[in-house]
Amino acid sequence: SIEINNVNIYYSSTTKVISVIDERNNKIGVFIGVVVDYKNNKVINTEITLNIDYENHINSIEAQIYQFSGTWIFILSDENYKRLYLDPCGSYSAVYDPVNKVAASITGLLLNDKEFVDKFDKQLYTELGIHNLGWIPAGLTAHEGISRLICNHYLDLKSWKSIRHWPKDKFIQNNDVSDVSQKIAGIIQSTINSLRRDGSTCLTLTGGKDSRLIFLSLGNANLYTRSIRVLINLVSDSTNSFRIDLRSSVSANNIDNSV
């Protein structure tokens, strides 16, 4: 576990954590997960330095974290801001309890066994058909009092409210489909090549439009098919579990046991 400016962060031994400092060498946060600097074709495995324009403080920070692709959660905790951000795709789960001021990767890290049963929203679960391949949308969870952070929103760790941070302005319209497609393909290809240089990796694809775009973006990547299979089971990944807490009474041992 680590503590950064009164924010306590607990994580499992297998979680990849990258420290973030400012140009004054002050620790201001952490990335949890895999961070890819696609513009420089590399996976970041060392400490990250953010050069902050203090006259344009938070915009300066956000502009820099927007430059990273990958699968991550960014926790910012400096003297002025305490926030939790998702990567652009919201690849990692982040749920939170605004009353008790705790957030985690899964609800099971926020509730004890009794609370997990007592707060389960059976009516919501049934009406949404979760037992029959339905899903829980719009920042909801299956438990009363627990919310989910969604894409393009950050969690303010002072007010414990979810707030949209992107887009702030209107989109710039570009009707040149070829140009836009090439830019997206370039980011995808750079990200995948960065991951391949960092170590062995694999890419799961389906027959959908997103997968087809990804596959076409690979170009001459010299990839090969490892297997073709149909998945019928749901997979739970606790490799990158985390929990943040503004209370001092939570022990790391409890977190490890829950993971």
Describe the protein's architecture and organization.
The protein has about 260 residues and is of the alpha+beta class. It contains 6 helices and 14 strands. Strands 3, 4, 5, 6, 7, 8, 12 and 13 form an 8-stranded mixed β-sheet that branches. It has a 6-stranded antiparallel β-sheet with strand order 1-2-14-10-9-11. A hairpin with a 4-residue loop joins strand 7 (about 70-75) and strand 8. The chain is globular, with a radius of gyration of 20 Å. The two termini are about 15 Å apart. Residues about 230-235 and about 245-259 have low confidence and may be disordered.
Structure summarized in a few sentences:
With 259 residues, the protein is α+β, with helices and mostly antiparallel strands. The chain has helices at residues 57-65, 113-118, 122-127, 177-198, 209-217, 252-258; strands spanning 2-4, 7-11, 17-22, 27-37, 42-44, 48-50, 69-77, 82-86, 95-97, 102-104, 147-148, 153-156, 161-164, 242-245.
